[in-house]
Write a structure and sequence with these properties.
It contains seven helices and eight strands, in the order ααβαβαββαβααβββ. By secondary structure, it is α/β, with parallel strands linked by helices. It has one domain (11-242): Vaccinia Virus protein VP39 (Rossmann fold), CATH 3.40.50.150. The chain is globular and about 45 Å long.
């Protein structure tokens, strides 16, 4: 009997982020916060890739010969660096408008990336060496089904990196009260009640046959911007493998 596929896309979330598509690559536009997040996320990603596959930090293409899937890719802010690191990259997003912007930008800079519109179920049956999904799980319609979809997409021996806001008083103040209240983050982007604590995310992933092997905080420094930190109270990243 075929396994039932549960739709994970929340249409309201897809519509919200789709409206931002045209401005996604503007570092001073509505996605400015993502541009500021990217260096810290990439630093963590690179460190975990090197550790997982025994790469040297001097290697310009540590993902050479690997396939990578960016789930909730937006217009490709993280997908393009994955391709530049040598991966055969696939970007997946629920908003078709974002995929259109991602394809156009990749073409303009000469990168070959496979972009697909849809939820995680759109890659059912495919496996990837690296699966990343940054600031996405708090936006899906069914977190358990989403976690199972991520697990199904991860190849044996593969690596998964996720990030998500923690559900704390600090994240509510910083991301919603100040971030959305000031317009630095588009209004309606976050629902604090959908945020997951590290313990909750660990249990959720375990239910999908995945194991969290490393946890790293993502904090904010007035002098340096977003930085990797031991403090997970604002946002955090996790390294995940098959259990």
């Amino acid at each position: 009997m075929a396994k039932a596929i549960i739709a994970t896309v929340d249409p309201r979330e897809a519509e919200h982020f789709g409206k931002l598509a045209a401005d996604w690559w503007n570092p001073k536009g509505s996605s400015a916060m993502l541009h500021r997040l990217n260096p810290a996320r990439l630093a963590y990603l690179r460190e975990r890739i090197d550790r997982h596959w025994g790469r040297e930090s001097s290697d310009f293409a540590p993902l050479r010969g690997k396939t990578a899937l960016d789930v909730g890719c937006g217009a490709g802010l993280l997908t393009e660096p994955l391709a530049r690191l040598g991966a055969k990259a696939t970007g997946l997003d629920a908003a078709p408008e974002n995929i259109g912007a991602a394809r156009a930008h990749a073409a303009a800079v000469g990168l070959e990336i496979d972009y697909l519109a849809g939820g995680i179920e759109a890659v059912a049956g495919r496996r990837f060496d690296l699966v990343v999904s940054m600031e996405v799980i708090e936006h899906v319609a069914d977190t358990a089904a989403f976690a199972r979809g991520l697990a199904d997409a991860l190849a044996p021996g593969g690596l998964m990196i996720l990030s998500t806001p923690n559900r704390t008083a600090l994240s509510k103040l910083a991301m919603i009260t100040i971030g959305e209240g000031s317009g630095a983050i588009p209004r309606g982007t976050h629902d604090w009640n959908q945020f997951l604590t590290p313990d909750e995310l660990t249990v959720l992933l375990a239910g999908a046959g995945l194991e969290v092997t490393h946890l790293q905080g993502l904090g904010f420094s007035p002098a340096r911007g977003f930085v990797l930190s031991e403090d997970v109270s604002l946002d955090y990243l996790v390294t995940v493998i098959r259990a």
